[in-house]
Amino acid sequence: MKKSQKYLSTLVPFICLLILVFTIYFGYMLFFGHRKLSFLEDVESNNYASITHYAIYGIHLNIQGNINIDDEVNDMKLILSNGKKELELPFIYTNNGSNYTFKTSHYINEGIVLDNLPKGEYYLLIKVNNKKYYSVQNKTTYENLEYYTITNNKKNNKINIEWNTYDECPTLRFSIKEEKLPSDVYDITLDPGHDAVDPGMTVCYDGKSVIPIHSNSCSSGELIKESDLNLVVSLKLKELLERDGYKVSITRDDYQDEVDVYAPMGSATMANDTHSKLNLAIHHNSLGATVNNDYLGFEIYIANDTETTFAESLLNNLKKSANAYPSHKEKYAIIPGIYQRYFSEEEIGSEEYYWNTSMIYYYNIREVGGISTHAAQDGIGRPEYPKNEHYLSNNTAEPYLLELGYMDNLNDLKNIMDNPLGYAEGIKNAINEYLKAL
Questions:
Q1: CA distance 282 to 431
Q2: How many distinct structural domains can be found in the chain?
């Protein structure tokens, strides 16, 4: 009896202490937590902007939507607010009467630069005439997003973008804090095109001439496989990027590797399996002619609706570091050396269910970018290929296809074989320019 009383006399104060701690904590959260968001009480309570599209593409968040405002609008801004600080975001709007449509950019690779957002907790609002605030509601089929910033000085921020409510007001909240990069999250993915089973273009090269062939043997000269050249440049590029502090994944790192296209960690999926921000597919070009080819130079292929700053940086840095030149091929060119190739009506043929002319021809651009690049491999339209699990994703890498030169052009092949480090350095320098000029 005395023993149990002793336990009780010890236990009762402990229970009282716990009750006191919980009371203080929940009281603080109830009062100060509510008070912390009191700025949201100034938001219009009967009218919200409808978000009809939002997607992370590379390092950018793109948002589109609409709102009806009956009052005269002299100024409209998209902001992130925490009640003390307002961050103005890129914003384009037009109106038809009282109906306003808006977007963060005309391009899929522009918009809100997520890596630039400061740590803290913010809410997305529309500010009208510098005095009225409108919150946003989700009219998409997508829910919350998660993003890790590019590694910078061995540090990363994690950004949670979450649909929520505050006193029945719909909100989109950005929570940003420094956090160690998880083991399965990367900055950049490299895809050395082709593999041990599919070597791509093959040529015989004796140092003075080049002969395209369709076999794995040469009667004279050295057998050169596109898959091998792709890997040489990619491995050098990976080493350079990692030396600069980036975390880099690669679809294959050996000459004997086989790579599936749509399987997990495949050439169309690894960038998104690893949550990378950029995907660079490294290839070398050819005409497949049996005589020396007059075409030469590198070609950079980009996605639909892409702003060309990074592509132009790739072009300029390859010229400088690799002593290479952009191709003079005109077909599909939007800028000399920079190309967008869509499916043509002839290429679509009877495949109308699967293809359309708004789709980029190359799968390693189209399928990597998810909804932003009109990915389509759903496992139904082309059942001979497995489903791309990211084809409907709104959180994807920004993809590029680099054809570094024509293997069946003697001058190109000599430069490619003699100077793979120069090509890698040119690409690395362009990546640094793009990411560090944010």
A1: 14
A2: 2
